[in-house]
UniProtKB/TrEMBL annotation, chain A:
CDD domains: SQR_TypeA_SdhD_like. The keyword Repeat does not apply. It comes from Halobellus clavatus. Keywords: Heme, Iron, Membrane, Metal-binding, Transmembrane, Transmembrane helix. This is Succinate dehydrogenase subunit D.
From TrEMBL, chain B:
GO terms for cellular component: membrane. This is Succinate dehydrogenase subunit C. Keywords: Heme, Iron, Membrane, Metal-binding, Transmembrane, Transmembrane helix. The chain crosses the membrane at residues 31-52, 64-86, 106-130. The lineage of its organism: Archaea, Methanobacteriati, Methanobacteriota, Stenosarchaea group, Halobacteria. NCBIfam families: succ_dehyd_cytB (TIGR02970).
Length: 123, 131
């Protein structure tokens, strides 16, 4: 068994972006958990409280950036896992396509929800 | 000069008896990654009830949070997220070439710290669910 598949491409940027988003997500994911479980509590959640936070431009933009980086990091991670597992050719192209569409749907849905809370971009 | 050697097919989980600390870290990181990306899609789907109406969102979240099984799953999610964060930091250091000799110890430290943080968080995560 000498096969060895790697998702790393020489000169590629995805490897670097996976690490840049990781460094960002380490901080923001910890903040997200801390704010929504320890400062506020799970059983106290209401639309109005989420709305209050999302109407702040700083919080709103942080959450949009959180959505974008988490989607890239997660979906790119899945793609890397599939490549490391040895998929190639049509399967690889199909995976790229399906994951791309799934990312787009997730981002659109997340942004629509954020806008519903904030009542538009909170400028 | 970099050296390469035949490690066999790494993604062969049937070789788990041969795994050392670094290999377990890799398996756990991959498993927690799958859980987190799966949760990300679920999370956005649940939050999307805010698009229906403010009442639909509040009712959905409060109904879910009143269920013990959801609170227990949240503790599980915390465990998965904390491990992925701590082991992710470990990986960032490894990529920078820092602490390569202690990569096994930093894996064990990630596990212990994850356990400690999760146990300490249980009261907060279960608050109010018993009535």
């Amino acid at each position: 068994m000498a096969e060895r598949y790697s998702s790393f491409q020489r000169g590629g940027r995805r490897w670097l972006w996976q690490r840049i988003t990781a460094a960002f997500l380490v901080v923001v994911l910890a903040f997200h958990f801390f704010l929504l479980h320890f400062v506020h509590h799970a059983d106290e959640v209401t639309f109005a409280m989420s709305q209050g936070r999302m109407q702040e431009l700083t919080y709103f933009s942080l959450m949009i950036l959180f959505l974008l980086t988490a989607t890239f990091h997660g979906v790119n991670g899945v793609y890397n896992a599939l490549v490391n597992q040895g998929i190639s050719g049509t399967k690889k192209t199909a995976a790229k396509l399906v994951l791309g569409v799934a990312s787009a749907v997730l981002i659109v849905q997340g942004v629509r929800t954020a806008l519903a809370w904030a009542g538009g971009v909170p400028l | 000069m970099s050296q390469s050697y035949n490690r066999g097919l790494i993604e062969d989980f049937g070789r788990w008896r041969e795994f050392s600390a670094g290999m377990w870290a890799w398996v756990f990181h991959k498993f927690t990654g799958w859980v987190l990306v799966g949760y990300l899609f679920t999370h956005i789907a649940v939050l999307s009830t805010a698009l229906t109406s403010p009442e639909a969102y509040t009712t959905t979240i409060q109904s879910l949070e009143s269920l013990l099984v959801v609170r227990l799953l949240e503790v599980g999610l915390l465990a998965v997220a904390v491990f992925h964060i701590l082991n992710g930091l470990r990986l960032l250091f490894v990529d920078l070439g820092i602490g390569l000799e202690s990569q096994d110890k930093s894996f064990y430290a990630s596990l212990l710290l994850t356990g400690a943080i999760v146990i300490a968080s249980v009261p907060t995560f279960l608050a109010g669910v018993f009535g």
